[in-house]
UniProtKB/TrEMBL annotation:
It is a multi-pass membrane protein. It comes from the Bacteria. This is Copper resistance protein CopC. One of its GO terms (biological process) is response to copper ion. PANTHER family: INNER MEMBRANE PROTEIN YEBZ. Residues 1-22 form the signal peptide. It comes from Paenibacillus mucilaginosus K02.
Length: 543
């Protein structure tokens, strides 16, 4: 093993040891509660809109707006954020009867924009005058789990820019490391050529970063305009990271190629800047997640930059390529091991339940990436075997295959690093129609902890009030746990809903009756005045 490979392995093992004790913690902003809730039909107008998220938000760039059915903004007042920076609140003037549209835009701790729109009604049903309620231009919901659901030209540009930036970052920084490691012992002509190519990669990296930044700015700003641009870059951590990355790309034309130490410092800062714009910045413990991400990028750069350099030399300077191959082969193997270990540790931090891998696009793409990396390991072993057997033609073909696998891996990473690792909880709205009875059960926001539980029953008026309405929660992951009885109580329901020519009876309660994540069976039992009991069951998943 070369001194370079040994030093690389020792450094990365030490850093991985530091991060191994990191505990998992949820992150990535998503809306967990809206008051009033989406689809609410209220008798009295609300005094304010309160949106609560599952993690700390950026305090510099956000908005919450309410429009009436004529597309008029009901107040010019700005929304405020609570001291914990987990909720956005907008005080409202007195609202009249009608349908209202709520739209919001926030930036999560990992620098990703989260926005959405929903409706509520005051003094009427949402179905009344619905035709005049149109969504104002530019309002939509973004940052979901599916990468290609309803993909627009802007989405395609974002994915392309991320892939190009990620590829340019890895190849350029890796090339820089290998230029210092291998170029110093190469003939002058080879060293000069590698330096010229490094400068080409450097230019591509700057262009890719500018494209990456330009493609994502509209989503970060939302409808904030020029004022939002200033706020983004002066008052948010995400903005600081964007500017820092751009300055690093520009400073590379001044800093690089002067000394090995300066080149290494620049590359390390470039990897850190990338980490500040990803999931690692949104999870706790942040020090460990950022360090793991930095290690992951460093190992990927050693592999990607070395492979591209080796492939180019194989085509043009075969003897120099043969000098590089055994050094690269050892370093690539160590890098892939570091990639595997750091990736596994990161996954355990991101996911409180490893089964979530199969339940999100992020997890499924992670499995695809893992399969590609496994194929790379096999290909690398075959390259080493062919080289030792002096089979240049076979080794060349395998190098080309390795490059294809690397390109595919970078493409997958460019997509899945922008998806949400954690599956999102959606409120339960469960309605069952029957011949003599209808039932609706609602759990909102359907998260571990405090929730609002509502049961509504429609019965023929001649039967009168139900004799009993029972709501139970059965843990399917812990069958030894007795069912949890949710003590719903009658309340005066002000919402407007179809009566189905029957009398409606409504029950609700708020409390921590859904204590933890997992699979649950919701059971509703309704007994009418004639002692006829109807039982309903539905399975839910809480993340």
């Amino acid at each position: 093993m070369s001194r370079f490979a040994a030093l690389l392995l020792l450094t990365m093992v030490m850093l991985l040891t530091v991060t191994a004790g990191a505990a998992p913690a949820a992150a990535h902003a998503s809306l967990v509660e809206a008051v009033p809730a989406a689809g609410s039909e209220l008798k009295a107008a609300p005094e304010r809109i309160t949106l609560t998220f599952n993690e700390r938000l950026e305090n510099g760039l956000f908005y919450l707006r309410v429009y009436d059915s004529a597309k008029r903004q009901v107040t010019d007042a700005a929304a405020v954020m609570n001291p914990e920076q987990t909720a956005v609140i907008l005080e409202l003037p007195a609202l009249g009867q009608g349908n209202y549209l709520v739209t919001y835009h926030v930036i999560s701790a990992d620098g990703h924009p989260v926005e959405g729109t929903y409706l509520f009604a005051v003094g009427q049903s949402l179905s009344e005058d619905a035709g005049s309620q149109e969504m104002p231009a530019g309002m939509h919901h973004s940052h979901g789990d599916e990468p290609f659901g309803g993909t627009s030209a802007g989405d395609v540009l974002q994915f392309v820019s991320r892939i190009l930036y990620y590829a340019a970052l890895l190849v350029f920084t890796g090339w820089l490391l290998w230029y210092r490691r291998f170029g110093g012992t190469a003939p002058d002509e080879t060293r000069t050529r590698l330096r010229r190519l490094a400068e080409k990669w450097q230019q591509l990296y700057l262009i890719a970063y500018i494209l990456f930044m330009w493609a994502h700015l509209p989503d970060l700003l939302g409808d904030s305009g020029a004022a939002g641009l200033v706020t983004l870059f002066t008052k948010t951590a995400a903005g600081y990271a964007w500017i820092g990355g751009l300055l690093l790309a520009l400073l590379s034309f001044i800093m690089l190629y002067r000394s090995t130490a300066l080149d290494l410092v620049w590359a390390a800062l470039a990897w850190l800047a990338k980490g500040m714009l990803g999931h690692a910045a949104g999870f706790e413990p942040k020090t460990q997640t950022l360090l793991l991400d930095w290690l992951h990028l460093a190992a990927a750069a050693v592999w990607a930059g070395g492979l591209v350099m080796l492939l180019l030399l194989w085509k043009t300077e075969r003897e120099q390529a043969k000098r590089l191959l055994p050094i690269f082969s050892t370093a690539a193997l160590l890098s892939l091991l570091v990639l595997t270990v750091s990736g596994v540790l990161t996954t355990f931090i991101f996911l409180p339940d490893i089964r979530y891998i199969l339940e999100t696009s992020w997890g499924r793409l992670l499995l695809v990436k893992s399969a590609l990396v496994a194929a790379v390991m096999v290909t690398g072993a075959l390259i080493r075997f062919s080289y030792r057997r002096l089979r240049d033609r076979t080794a060349g073909r395998l190098l080309a295959l390795d490059a294809i696998l690397m390109t595919a891996t970078i493409g997958v990473v460019g997509v899945f690093t922008y998806l949400t690792p954690l599956p999102a909880n959606e409120p339960l709205h469960w309605h069952v129609m029957g011949e003599k009875i209808h039932m609706t059960a609602q759990i909102s926001p359907k998260v571990p902890g405090v929730n609002d539980f509502t049961v509504k029953v429609w019965l023929p008026e001649k039967l009168g009030k139900p004799k009993d309405v029972i709501l139970k929660l059965h843990s399917l992951d812990g069958p030894e746990i007795a069912p949890i009885v949710v003590p719903v109580e009658p309340f005066d329901d002000a919402s407007f809903e179809d009566s189905y020519d029957m009398k409606r009876y409504s029950y609700r309660v708020r409390g921590a009756y859904l204590p933890y994540a997992g699979r649950w069976r919701v059971e509703v039992r309704v007994m009418d005045s004639e002692d006829n009991e109807t039982v309903y069951n539905s399975e839910i998943r809480v993340y």
